[in-house]
Amino acid sequence: MSSSPPPIRFETHPSRYRHWSLEVEGETATLTLRVDEAGGLRPGYALKLNSYDLGVDIELADAVERLRFEHPWVGAVVIRSGLDRVFSSGANIFMLANSSHGFKVNFCKYTNETRLAIEEASLGSRQRYLAAVGGTCAGGGYELALACDEVLLVDDGSSAVSLPEVPLLGVLPGTGGLTRIIDKRKVRRDRADVFSTLAEGIRGRRALEWGLVDHLAPRSRFEERIRERAVALADPVRGAAGRKKRGIVLDPLEPEEGPDSVRYRHVDLRFNRSERTATLTVHAPEDPFPEDRAALAAAGASVWHLRMARELDDALCRLRFNEPELGVVLLRTAGDPDAVREADRRLVGCGLVWLALQSQFRVGRTLRRLDQTARSFFAVAEPGERFVGTLAELLFAADRSYLCDDPERPAGVELTELNYDAYVMANGLSRLETRFYGDSRRTRDLRWHGAVNAAEAEKLGLATFAPDDLDWEDELRVAIEERAGFSPDALTGMEASLRFAGPETMETRIFGRLSAWQNWIFQRPNAMGERGALTVYGKPERAEFDWERT
């Protein structure tokens, strides 16, 4: 019997990178992609032509985060290739063809989230990204370039950008390519149609004219143009202010791992595999939160909001990739609720202090990963437990919530200032605004309420159910068992459809299309059948299609 693959780890460090190198010189950083062909996360494929797998993207995600926190003075980040005449050929096709369907979809999600982290760094940290495309740039390679603020393409008569998934593989660009070319780059629909069906892509002047790239440079001036654009992107005023920031070191999380649990400093993840459930508990800060800006800076990466967000993020990634059969996740809180309220108050009191803002951004990004995770989330508060402030976002992100209405020790909810606009969802709204979409008065009125018990929370719409202490265990048990017994496919579609009320944004469209169209196309015989396009890629035979349009 074959053994299961080892669990995937999502922490790394520049000293352990196999595929990327990170160099910082003044206000410019350079991320160079030179993929180790033999360095795949799993055996069975070679990462040729700077193609990538999840391991390559884990390193990129780490680099993007370290640039924000450890090198805040950097104003421009150049992403380039270490190979001659190749930028990136995109996601490795043989890796995709040999992966389970769930791995494919979660790989695309993680890659999307990494691209979005680049775009958030541009907006939230004013670190502008330049894709220096010095050769072939196809599929996911071009999707990486699309995430950057600008794309500089070498004009040598052969280098091109392309999204060849439809003509070559029978699938769609899985990491936001179609959405970004029309929503972000404003490429005309008819031109986007032509571009997305040209396996060879588009070169030079036409790529510039159609808006697929921002700048061209002959090979003789390519390096010079990279330097020019990096200087132009790095705002000198912002750079001068950034140089005053010393940055912080992101220390390793080093969780304690057991067969049925992963324990961090502020987060516990426990597995009940026989019941197909997991419990994710986030603890309130145990130490007093820094009282002022100086103390906050001294605390660095140990600041509760930042550390907790990094731990929760790692736990969510482990759930996605390592525990695919655990369908119901119970979200719990532990520790002193008043400590969370005080931590939120002091963080807000720091105002526009760099570390305070970046910590809020990091919490928001982690919560958006939770929103996009294909699991049923139930927020649960046992007697005496309270979802407060930042941790109340877990309750609002959950698909439903259960608070025990114990007369002696009622569970409850308490909002802080951070619940109103600090942690924005993919739709551009807070979770409270999304919860009460179309009823802004109700959201405003919540500011007049302090801590509320379970029954009040249910009346105010802050909780789904508030069973009394006599019915609590039975009602919760039945709800969990019922949820765990439904079709996982139906639940994934239902949850993804219900979580994002309100306006559409580029981000919701990316994930909506991934969850629906790509999820479906990746399983169709035309892609993954015995003679499907993905299956026969790289082989001498041609793909055979079922010609019915559905």
Physical arrangement of strands within the biggest beta sheet: 13-14-15-16-17-18-20
Arithmetic mean pLDDT? 94
Secondary structure: helix percent: 40-55%
β-strand number = 22
Rg measurement, Å: 24 Å
User: Helical stretch count?
Assistant: 24
Find the structural class using helix and strand composition.
alpha/beta
Terminal residue distance: 40 Å
Low-confidence stretches: none
* Apparent shape: globular
State the assembly state of the protein chains: single chain
Q: Estimate the strand proportion.
A: 15-25%
Biggest sheet statistics: 7 strands, mixed
Written overview of the protein:
- It is a single chain.
- The chain is of the alpha/beta class and 550 residues long.
- Helix content is 42%, strand content 17%.
- The chain contains 24 helices and 22 strands.
- The strands form 5 sheets. The protein has a 7-stranded mixed sheet, with helices on both faces. Strands 1-2-4-7-9-12 form a 6-stranded mixed sheet, with helices on both faces. It has a 4-stranded mixed sheet with strand order 5-8-10-11.
- The longest helix is centred in the first third of the chain and has 24 residues, at 101-124.
- The protein is globular and about 75 Å long.
